[in-house]
Amino acid sequence: MAEKSQEESEYKYVGAEELEEFETYYEEKGFEQFAEFMANKIKEVENVPVKIAVTGISGTGKSAFVNTFRGLNADNEGAAKVGSLETTMVPTEYRHPNNKNVTLWDLPGVGTSKFNKDNYEEKVNFDSYDFFLIFTRGRIFEDDIWLAKRAQLRGKNYFIVRTHIDVDMKGDKSTHPHTHDANKLLKEIRDGTKRLLEEVGVYPKDGVYLISTLLKHVHKDLWDYRKLENDMLHKLPREKREVLTLSLNNLSKNLIKEKCEILRSRLKQKAMLLALKGFVPSGLKDFMPQEVLDFIDNEMTSYRQALGLDDGTLRRLSQRTGIELESLISETTEIIEMPTLRITGDVVMMLMACAIDPVLIVHPAISFFSKLGVGFGVAYESAYRLLHDILGRLETASLRVIEKMPSTQHTESLKATLSSTPYGVLYDRTQGGDDEA
């Protein structure tokens, strides 16, 4: 018999305000439209768009960032072309591979005949973006300043991103092999960029972000990349913040836990929809509608994508680290106790036997549930615990995959050592920055 955790109880019960909304809608519209209403409420939460504008002249690492942010390298399908000095002529959209609602837009420069200062904001649909990332490799150009000022004027958040820090490190180390001081160099770059931006009135209160856009450096938590991600999240309203959080690929133990917290907060609506679709809480697998099995299968797929356990992410992880793909996949299949990651009636029954306490706890919404049909409350409780159990198993699998990473122990100790610095991890002397972005 499974025990209900305090965490499970906190999320499971429908709140009074939400319950009143459900009851009112059901009494006015009836059962079928109420089921459609619940499905739409879930879509509204999950399909919130997040649009990120990426700007800067050619050679500042925009394309590499667009790929890295989406967990891709230049050879992957859908990757932005890296290394080209061609100027972006039209706004170019790049969708996140695991969430089509998260898009990065490479915007053309301001100083072209087609996109000049008189028509730029209208032509790029300026107000549609949630925030702007302005990339620079060293010099701050007039067009960058103009764009930052327009963002200020229109109340848009913007981030100044100084790239190619790995190249700066390599150059300074080569020039000063005996006196090279990484943190001193970072301070000089940060202070110099700050001074330039203050002179023209566009220095953001969150400062500038010193990063390398190379995927290998990002996964080592070098410099300000994770701080940039965190600050981007905190500039968004809750619904958009949750969507973007679930899409982040630079996984850490804390990020996995944060993602699972978001997913757990959505389980009650998912469980209610499953019960409305005909979820069978007993062991009668032959009576479980295929629509219910498909819904559970899609849920598990979305959990795997959010937690970095989907086939594509694991394959790229294997290629990057040299760890056998089968070894990474086995972490998921062993914990979920499934030879293949597909939901069938047999699999649901097996998981239910592990997850479900046959004694129904009295639910605050039990009177409303009784209106939805005999046994609806039991179906809801069972569906909730099933989804809760699947998510918990996948959370454990994701944490185990992170433990397999060669740099996990090093990264965790490095974070602890440098956690008191104002910008988090500044520079890892033991792993250096010897590759150019």
UniProtKB/TrEMBL annotation:
InterPro entries: G_IRG_dom, Immunity-related_GTPase-like, IRG, P-loop_NTPase. It comes from the Eukaryota. Keywords: GTP-binding, Hydrolase, Nucleotide-binding. GO terms for molecular function: GTP binding; hydrolase activity. Residues 48-235 form the IRG-type G domain. It holds the Pfam family IIGP. This is T-cell-specific guanine nucleotide triphosphate-binding protein 1-like. The keyword Nucleotide-binding applies. PROSITE patterns: G_IRG. Belongs to the TRAFAC class dynamin-like GTPase superfamily. IRG family. The keyword Nucleotide-binding applies. One of its GO terms (cellular component) is membrane.
